[in-house]
């Protein structure tokens, strides 16, 4: 039987389920027969076998009784839904929480800043289909660690000219023709310098600019405001490398694969808007073998039956202490939210319910833990931000003692005497009816072989100002990207602090990492892949003890890397 991986990943693999084991779907254009560590080891990580009240096992029906009683007795309720499973049916719980007047945590811990920057230019963040990546000549991998987070794309990159832009010498950089190992947080400046070279060489696509864009003159004035010598110095790479890349981009069919890495900063949306503006200047949109691919917006043209009106607070800076009851679903905020100490204090003050798969850190401190069914035990449908394919996930296993998101919602509707919940199949059909069917596959409603070939909704709007209060600060930059064998806090985490050789530390040393937001003790691994001014700790480690519980300039997205840290050996 076919299903799909439920994890928050570009690849959205198609999975064959046979006699209780999981295999990659050989016929699928993305999956090509292999899965990654996470799904290959899915059953090695023990899932909850019971509900718990204050750490004592209880029955599922007792757990729901307690939940009901607590919900009825609470005035301020927060629904906090993460991305432990990205199936669409996760959203069904919003229907209940909106009906009882709860606040819903929204905004993004992830790609929200970049998404906004793209919308400001192109209007919509359409997914770049794989066929266009296949037709490209030059692929610029910009702040995306494809070998770890997007490994099914690797076959599509063979034979291309590869350029990597990343402060870390990531694996794919070894196979690249160029690696611009820039200083962290200088992507906007780099895109600006590339645009300057193209402008000076009259390399822009005049017809495209004329027909499809507005305000190009403002953009041209704006990029001239950045003085070349100090800007290149700040970026920290040779000016010749920048000039060479600008030339390659003018000569070749170019695809830019931008990842999450560039936008974990206060001005994250401006970074994507600038990269998009650089691409628009070259006419890379709506053209074969060209385009900018970020984490694509799967909601374009999709009517979501779970969209609700509710009070909202941004996830990154949420104050759990302000709520009597916090209902956490598919998330492990004690590890994945910034400023962990603040998260812990907030959760301590509220009645915390965790609805999840594992006895993770947050479940360990929760008052009530309700086991969720895993992706094999409930029907669902998943979209992916990395390609156009949509997968249905039938229910393949029976499971008692756990609930699906739909089942919990239905039970709460019943207990609270609410109306308006449709049958589970009706929601799945609702999604199905909006998809494009292409042979054996379903594709996104917004799928187009060459996105933007018919133009943008409004003419492309170039960036012409930037709000950024960056200042030179004491301390090391913190890079906190995705680990190879984990999905954020799930599966095999990597707990080390990676430091450059220049710090004079050795493998196994213990250090105290400090920032204005907290501190954490970590074990060191020395890495030759890092620039001297940065340290690296993966998502899923305890590094969020030092990251800021703040949002980007638009009050929406987390800014995990907007921080400098001190690293001191512990003797
Ligand atoms: N194996 C694995 N796969 C995953 C995940 C996981 O946890 N593990 N998580 C999933 C999720 S939720 C997401 S959002 C995606 C994200 O996946 P990616 O888009 O790959 O994002 P990151 O791993 O956060 O960062 C990617 C790269 O950005 C670089 N970087 C950091 N700061 C900067 C900077 O200032 N400038 C530039 N140019 N580069 C920078 C980092 O060194 C890193 O190589 O991955 C998904 N896939
Ligand atoms: N330092 C640092 N922090 C980061 C990031 C980073 O790069 N660096 N990345 C951020 C990003 S991009 C993201 S997307 C977030 C993700 O952070 P989270 O949303 O917290 O996601 P996970 O850690 O993947 O999942 C947490 C829990 O989901 C539960 N779960 C899994 N499947 C199901 C299910 O089917 N149903 C239910 N009810 N629960 C389930 C499991 O119990 C698991 O413990 O982390 C953010 N935090
Ligand atoms: S985590 Fe990503 S690469 Fe791994 S099986 Fe799931 S979709 Fe595929
Ligand atoms: Mo994410």
How would you portray this structure in words?
The chain has 571 residues and is an alpha/beta fold. Helices cover 27% and strands 21% of the residues. The longest helix has 14 residues, at 60-73. The chain is globular, with a radius of gyration of 24 Å. It starts with a strand and ends with a strand. 52% of the residues are buried. The structure holds ligand MGD (2 copies), iron/sulfur cluster and molybdenum atom.
Give a summary of the structure in a few sentences.
The protein is an alpha/beta fold and 571 residues long.
CATH architecture of the domain at 112-297 and 453-461: 3-Layer(aba) Sandwich
What Rg do the Cα atoms give?
A: 24 Å
Query: Per DSSP, what share of the residues sits in E-state strands of 2 or more residues?
Result: 15-25%
How many β-strands, per DSSP?
30
- CATH superfamily of the domain at 112-297 and 453-461, called what? Dimethylsulfoxide Reductase, domain 2
Average pLDDT score: 97
Q: CATH first level of the domain at 112-297 and 453-461: which class?
A: Alpha Beta
CATH topology of the domain at 112-297 and 453-461: Dimethylsulfoxide Reductase, domain 2
- The unreliable regions are none
Give the neighbour order of strands across the main sheet.
Answer: 5-4-17-16-15-6-7-14
Structural class: alpha/beta
Residues in helix, %: 25-40%
The main sheet comes to: 8 strands, mixed
Shape descriptor: globular
- Ligand roster: ligand MGD, iron/sulfur cluster, molybdenum atom
Question: How many angstroms separate the termini?
Answer: 56 Å
Count of runs of 4 or more consecutive helical residues: 18
């Amino acid at each position: 039987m076919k299903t799909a991986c439920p994890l928050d990943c570009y690849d959205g693999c198609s999975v064959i389920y046979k006699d209780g084991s999981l295999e990659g779907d050989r016929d699928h254009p993305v999956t090509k027969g292999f899965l990654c560590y996470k799904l290959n080891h899915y059953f090695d990580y023990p899932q909850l076998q019971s509900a718990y009240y204050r750490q004592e096992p209880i029955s599922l029906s007792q757990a729901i009784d307690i939940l009901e009683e607590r919900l009825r007795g609470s005035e301020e309720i927060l629904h906090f839904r993460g991305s432990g499973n990205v199936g669409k049916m996760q959203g069904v719980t919003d229907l209940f929480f909106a009906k009882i007047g709860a606040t819903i945590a929204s905004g993004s811990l992830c790609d929200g800043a970049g998404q906004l920057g793209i919308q400001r230019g192109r209007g919509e963040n359409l997914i770049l289909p794989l066929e266009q990546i296949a037709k490209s000549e030059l692929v610029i991998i910009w702040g995306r660690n494809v070998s770890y987070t997007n490994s099914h794309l690797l076959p599509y990159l063979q034979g291309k000219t590869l350029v990597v832009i990343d402060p870390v010498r990531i694996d794919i950089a070894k196979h690249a023709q160029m690696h611009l190992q820039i200083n962290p947080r200088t992507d906007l400046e780099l895109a600006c310098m590339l645009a300057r070279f193209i402008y000076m060489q009259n390399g822009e696509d005049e017809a495209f600019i004329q027909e499809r864009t507005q305000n190009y003159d403002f953009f041209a004035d704006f990029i001239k405001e950045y003085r070349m010598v100090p800007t290149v110095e700040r970026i920290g790479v040779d000016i010749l490398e920048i000039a060479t890349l600008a030339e390659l981009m003018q000569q070749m069919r170019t695809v830019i694969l931008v990842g999450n890495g560039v936008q974990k900063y206060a001005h994250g949306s401006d970074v994507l808007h600038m990269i998009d503006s650089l691409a628009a200047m070259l006419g890379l949109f709506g053209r074969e073998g060209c385009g900018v691919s970020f984490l694509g917006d799967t909601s374009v043209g999709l009517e979501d039956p779970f969209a609700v009106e509710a009070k909202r607070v941004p996830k990154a800076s949420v104050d759990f202490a302000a709520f009597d009851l916090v209902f956490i679903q598919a998330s492990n905020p004690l590890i994945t939210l910034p400023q962990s100490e603040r998260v812990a204090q907030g959760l301590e003050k509220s009645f915390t319910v965790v609805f999840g798969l594992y006895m993770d850190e947050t479940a360990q401190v929760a008052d009530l833990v309700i086991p969720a069914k895993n992706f094999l035990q409930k029907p669902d449908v998943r979209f992916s931000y990395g390609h156009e394919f949509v997968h249905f996930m039938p229910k393949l296993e029976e499971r008692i003692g756990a609930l699906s998101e739909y089942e919990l919602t239905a039970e709460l509707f019943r207990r609270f005497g609410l109306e308006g919940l449709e049958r589970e199949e009706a929601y799945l059909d609702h999604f199905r009816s909006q998809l494009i069917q292409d042979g054996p596959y379903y594709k996104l409603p917004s799928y187009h072989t060459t996105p933007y070939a018919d133009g943008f909704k409004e003419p492309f709007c170039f960036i012409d100002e930037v709000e950024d209060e960056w200042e030179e600060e004491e301390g090391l930059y913190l890079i906190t990207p995705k680990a190879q064998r984990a999905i954020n806090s799930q599966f095999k985490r990597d707990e080390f602090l990676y430091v450059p050789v220049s710090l004079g530390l050795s493998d196994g040393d213990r250090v105290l990492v400090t920032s204005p937001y907290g501190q954490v003790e970590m074990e060191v691994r020395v890495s030759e892949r890092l620039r001297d001014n940065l340290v690296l700790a993966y998502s899923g480690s305890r590094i969020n003890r030092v990251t800021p519980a703040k949002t980007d300039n638009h009050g929406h997205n987390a800014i995990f890397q907007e921080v400098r840290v001190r690293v001191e050996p512990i003797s």
